[in-house]
Amino acid sequence: MNTSLKRPITAEEIETFDSDGVVMLKQMFDADWIALLDKGLSDSMTAPTDRSRVWDRDEAGRAVYYDSQAWTRIEEYRQFVVDSPCAEIAGRLLRASSVNFFFDAVFVRSPGTQFATPWHQDEPYWTVDGYDTCSIWMPLVPVTKESALAFVPGSHKGNRRYIQRNFGDLNPDRQTEIDQVDFSGFGDEPLPDIDADPAAHNVTSWAMQPGDCVAFNGRVIHGGSGKLAGDRDLRVFNTKWLGDDVRIKFRDHGMDPDHSAVMTELGLKPGDRVGTDVYPEVWRR
Asked: 46, 145 in Cβ contact below 8 A?
């Protein structure tokens, strides 16, 4: 498998990531990486972590499955995190001196699922604070523009604090405490009604093939879409990367995923850079 960049990231792509908070990168991963992740995803679904949950299930049984932080026990995930070009992609886009891995997340939608992901930002949920964050969203199967994750370009800029959604409310099973996180202490105003006028917000998504990826800042508003044709499923592997200005923050409101206990056990405290084998530095310029 190719451990170096399959192609250079262009200056234009770096500028787009900076200005829009999101950029689609064509063919950054070869077929071997996609096959490796697909095997890991299939294996992990047979033995999910205690962080797995269902976000939606309709009357026909079609569901949206989520799991995260499985990379330390799924060898295929670990190999991808450590050896793939993913960390360098994040580092180049962030113009970072170094990049640490934060956590992994997977999303699996049954064929024909119509559930639309609520609009939200990522970083307000996290146990870290900083502008230099990068998520890399990789479909392991083809995805149409209408079904792909969508973004509001430029919404990562500024200091507006939006009220965030409790994703635990979406779980039809509601079996564990992990589903319920109180975000009422964060945010001064509701997110804009993006669905009322997507064009006014320049809502953007892309048709993608395995090997493509979307890289986005943790503060950019994203969601929507997700509706699948009856013969199409969706399997996505997502990794989160932290750059130069990111520091640990134990927020007063709920955090999801909440890494505060793990970080404390590792001797990490608010204001520190992440580190240790759990949040390793994977790439350095």
From this structure: no
Give bridge partners of residue 128 from the DSSP assignment: 248
Structure tokens at 257: 């995923």
How far is it, in rounded angstroms, from Cα 70 to Cα 200? 38
Whole-angstrom Cα distance, residue 7 to residue 17?
17
The pTM for the full model equals 0.93
* Torsions phi, psi for 262 (to 5 deg): -65, -45
**pLDDT mean for each 10 residues of the chain (285 residues):** 87 98 97 97 91 82 89 96 97 98 95 90 92 97 96 91 71 57 72 93 97 97 88 96 97 81 95 96 96
Hey, what amino acid is at 75?
E
Q: DSSP readout, the chain?
A: ---S-SSPPPHHHHHHHHHHSEEEESS-S-HHHHHHHHHHHHHHHHS--TT-EEEEE-TT--EEEEEE--TTT-HHHHHHHHHSTHHHHHHHHHT-SEEEEEEEEEEEE-TT--PPEEEE-SGGGSSEE-S-EEEEEEESS-B-TTTS-EE-TTTTSS---EEPP-GGGG-SS--SGGG----TTS-SEEPP-GGG-GGGGT-B---B-BTBEEEE-TTS-EEE-----TT--EEEEEEEEE-TT-EE---SS--SS--HHHHHHTT--TTSPP-TTTS-EEEE-
